[in-house]
Specification:
This protein has 340 residues and is mainly alpha-helical. It folds into 2 domains: 192 residues, Alpha Horseshoe (Serine Threonine Protein Phosphatase 5, Tetratricopeptide repeat), CATH 1.25.40; 95 residues. The chain is 83% helix and 0% strand. It has 11 helices and no strands. α1 packs antiparallel against α2. The radius of gyration is 60 Å and the shape is rod-shaped.
Length: 340
């Protein structure tokens, strides 16, 4: 059993159909086929009950019936509306195109032009929706659905990313058509657009932050790589220096050992010469005791002088060698301190 609201809708549609049948679509002097009229009313009744699939064949048959005369336009109109209700938007678009081509001066042209704009939008053909709906605004500026046309234009702009233009139209609907069925939806879209503005700003900031972070990371990686390369170079230099120091230290140790051996030999020679000098001095004292004066140029005086001179030269060489040894030891001490 039909609900009260559906009965009211059915009666309204039937009354509208009766007005159209009796006044608009029936040519003067022409009789309306009762069976065709009954088929149309039956289809409208099914449509009112949301039985769109059952109503469609009746509407399509009426549109294709060459004997239906002016009622063919009603069949096309209701067929398009049934397809829209079933969300068969491609079929609805095709039927609207057929209607506009076959009945360009029909009184339902205004409504179907509006529906055509909606169908384009619902198929995501936003540019085409804008063209049709803008044309509608020019043709029918006093339309009862003008606010709805504005809304669908705004929706198309919104989907195309033209948020500023869409925002302006939503604002117009909210302020100038506050009693419209689209007013609440327009206010919701306004809030959503403002949220998108904030979101865009945040995304921009995040993108900038991300780019800066990438730059910092790249710079850090570049520096890190540079530091690693420098560290590796330093490590190689340190290893080389350590190897070089070990070789130099070994060479220095060998040199010191040789100098120490030479010094020991010279010291031994010095001791021997000192013994010889002591013996020479003893001999000279003996000579002095035995003879008050040694004749100048005598053999004894020459031997003593030669022996003394040799001892002095040997002592000078020993002292020079000792100085060289001490200098080498002095240069070695800071290096050993640095190793500690």
């Amino acid at each position: 059993m039909l609900s009260k609201s559906r009965l009211i809708l059915l009666y309204a549609i039937l009354a509208l159909g009766g007005m159209v049948f009796g006044q608009a679509v029936r040519p003067a002097g022409a009789a309306v086929n009762p069976e065709i009229l009954a088929s149309l009313r039956s289809g409208i009744g099914l449509f009112a009950e949301a039985r769109y699939t059952e109503a469609l064949p009746l509407f399509d048959a009426l549109f294709m019936n060459s004997e239906a005369g002016a009622l063919r336009a009603e069949g096309a109109y209701w067929s398009a509306m049934a397809h829209i209700a079933l969300r068969n938007y491609a079929a609805a678009e095709a039927m609207i195109d057929l209607f506009l081509e076959a009945f360009p001066d029909h009184q339902r042209l205004e409504e179907l032009l509006y529906q055509q704009g909606r169908v384009y939008y619902l198929q995501q053909k936003y540019e085409q929706a804008l063209q049709i709906l803008n044309a509608y605004m020019v043709l029918y500026p006093e339309s009862e659905v003008f606010s709805s046309v504005l809304f669908w234009i705004a929706e198309s702009l919104y989907e195309l990313g033209r948020l500023t233009d869409a925002e302006r139209l939503y604002q117009t609907i909210s302020e100038n058509y506050s009693d419209s069925v689209k007013a609440e939806a327009a206010r919701y879209r306004l809030d959503l657009i403002r949220f998108k503005y904030r979101e865009t700003e945040l995304l921009t900031l995040l993108r900038w932050s991300h780019e800066e972070s990438l730059k910092v990371i790249e710079e850090f990686q570049r520096r890190e790589k540079s530091y690693e390369q420098a560290l590796q170079q330093y490590q190689r230099q340190i290893a080389s220096l350590q190897q070089g120091d070990a070789s130099g230290q070994t060479a220095l140790t060998d040199q010191i050992a040789r100098l120490e051996d030479q010094l020991a030999q010279l010291q031994q020679q010095l001791v021997a010469r000192e013994l010889e000098l002591a013996a020479a001095n003893a001999a000279r004292q003996t000579i002095a005791l035995t003879s008050t004066e040694v004749e100048p140029g005598s053999d004894a005086q020459g031997i003593a002088a030669a022996t003394y001179a040799n001892l002095l030269a040997m002592k000078e060489r020993s002292l020079n060698l000792l100085v060289a040894y001490l200098e080498i030891m002095q240069t070695q001490q800071p290096a050993e301190g640095g190793d500690q």
